Amino acid sequence: MGNIKDKVAIIGMGCTTFGERWDMGPYDLIIEACYEAFEDAGIEPGEIEAGWFASLVSGFTGSRLSNALKLEYIPVTRVENFCSGGLHALANACYAVASGACDVALACGVEKLKDREVGFALSPDPVDSSKGVVPGPPASMFAHIAVRYFHHHGWDVEEGKRILAQISAKSHHNGTLNPRAHFQREVTVEQVMKAPMVVHPLGLLDCCGVSDGCAAAIVVPAHKAGDFRDDSVLIKAFGFNSGASQALLQDDYDFLHIQENIEAAKAAYRQAGITDPRSEIDVAQVHDCFSIHELILYEELGFSAPGTAREDVAAGTFALDGELPVNTDGGLKCFGHPVSASGLRMTYEIYKQLQEKAGPRQVKNARTGLVHNAGGKVGSLNAAVAVYGRRD
Questions:
Q1: Cβ count near 26 (within 10 Å)
Q2: 357 partner at 20 to 30 Å CA-CA among 233, 268, 328, 367?
Q3: In whole angstroms, what separates CA 362 from the centre of its chain?
Q4: Catalytic residue list contains 337
């Protein structure tokens, strides 16, 4: 994958409130997010030269974006890649701009899940149970990882659940500071631990919710960004990969890591020139569909040394006032997960952080931010990592 570092800049973004948006259809959500992005960039819809549109369950074609925004006779392409669809839409827009195919491109991700019989009911493809590995739906898959992780580190269940509960409580605190989050209330560690069980050992408050939402970004060549604003945000890197069930083909797969996450991070760091993520990343948004995923991501993304994430959680390393704040807006835990919208929503938070416009969630001196998404099943996830930077 070619190096896109500093070739493209984000000049505008928009994001709806995420939640049970019974009063709005997908078109309404698209209009809300995209018109905020147009206003933020100081442009009119007619200035968009090409669009990339991410939607998983709605079955939309690219023309739906054109219909919603009344975009006339420009190319619009639908992108779908499970939970990383939003970042893939953004990457496609950025690569088109970097190649010279267009100068002003729109990326948009939307999902309406609350009034459909889908969302996290979507199960991965069946697997061969003869190997003794049956991930099942997402909650079951991550419960497997949690049980194995606890066992490997010698934790009893209560000890492990307490560590995960600290992560959920951290995210809920951040969510109280964000009026666009679906859930905006504090929860205590004890409340998380005593919540109804979903799949042992993950309780209700270890799992993100299902919601409706949309987010959008407008990108231009970096050398033209100053024509629109002084505080545009630079694209530093994209790292993507899709597994081919390699893990499930290994009899000794340890269920302690997700290799797709590791490889996506390596690719992004290589492009961005990052050698020490813990010290070089100032703020991060990671795919906390379940609290155990956030925990292992600390190590997979290089924020914690292998086997030390627990100590960093206890030390408050990833809290809003910590050394490397993670999920500053409340994460999927508080926003829910309208699948194709999440990556762009997470980018929206980093965009605001790097512009120093995140209000009470603002991280001091944030110059480099990271977004991570992953979706699918163990062994064949689609993983994505994006790195963004503040202009000097």
A1: 19
A2: 268
A3: 18
A4: yes
Angle (nearest 5°) at CA 381 between 55 and 113: 30
Residues 89, 146: Cα–Cα separation, whole Å: 31
pLDDT tens string, the chain, 392 residues long: the values are: 568 999 999 999 999 999 999 999 999 999 999 999 999 999 999 999 999 999 987 656 888 999 999 999 999 999 988 899 999 999 999 999 999 999 999 999 999 988 865 444 444 444 444 444 444 578 888 999 999 999 999 999 999 999 999 999 999 999 999 999 999 999 999 999 999 999 999 999 999 999 999 999 999 999 999 999 999 999 999 999 988 876 666 667 787 889 999 999 999 999 999 999 999 999 999 999 999 999 999 999 999 999 999 999 999 999 999 999 999 999 999 999 999 999 999 999 999 999 999 999 999 999 999 999 998 877 678 999 999 999 87
Concerning whether 293 is annotated as a catalytic residue, the answer is no
Q: Which amino acid makes up residue 209? A: G
Q: Which two tokens stand for residue 127?
A: 């697997």
From the list 15, 83, 214, 334, the catalytic residue is 83
Task: Specify the length of the chain in residues.
Answer: 392
Q: Choose the catalytic residue: 88, 172, 293, 337.
A: 337
- pTM for the whole thing? 0.94
